[in-house]
Design brief:
161 residues, Alpha-Beta Plaits
Length: 161
């Protein structure tokens, strides 16, 4: 199943491979920015085609590799089909004034909600994997990870504080 590539002047780049069953898959990255995918099943004369935007092509790549990403305004949910359909959510939240000066440990975020703070952005600086002693300031943007229900519980906890 060697991957063949070919520069097509005026068109773009073509990548092609044959599957173990004898089907052919070709992907064209065009100069106009679109991505075209053609499949030709063994024994057939006419290929099937799909044209995608770069975003759609990345989504297809995520699906094919088992990492499905669905984003909304403040969250990204990732599903890993190779891990028994594990779904985790990365979520950003703005730290309110009500928890200014409190630490991750003070808030018992993981114990109370199951979510974990994995990064904090403050004044254009990023603090990756902040320790439990990290002190929040109002206006910080926290990046948290957990299941959707854990994230919702965290939002409720923080709005109550």
């Amino acid at each position: 199943m060697p991957l063949r590539s070919q520069n097509l002047p005026g068109i773009g780049t073509k990548y092609e491979f044959s599957t173990d069953k004898g089907d052919t898959v070709a992907i064209f990255f065009t100069r106009t920015g679109t991505v075209q995918m053609y499949t030709l099943q063994q024994g057939c004369q006419t290929p099937s085609a799909a044209e995608m935007t770069p975003m759609e092509a990345r989504r297809l790549g995520n699906i094919l590799t088992g990492a499905i990403i669905e984003a909304d305004q403040e969250s990204v949910e990732i599903a890993f089909s190779a891990l028994a359909d594990l779904r985790i959510t990365l979520h950003t939240l703005i730290i309110p004034a009500s928890i200014d000066g409190k630490t991750i440990e003070d808030l018992q975020i993981r114990a109370k909600t199951g979510a974990t703070v994995i990064a904090v952005s403050r004044h254009s600086m990023n603090i990756i994997n902040p320790p439990a002693s990290f002190v929040f300031e109002a206006g910080d943007t926290a990046l948290v990870i957990g299941e959707t229900d854990q994230i919702k519980k965290l939002e409720r906890e923080i709005s109550v504080e």
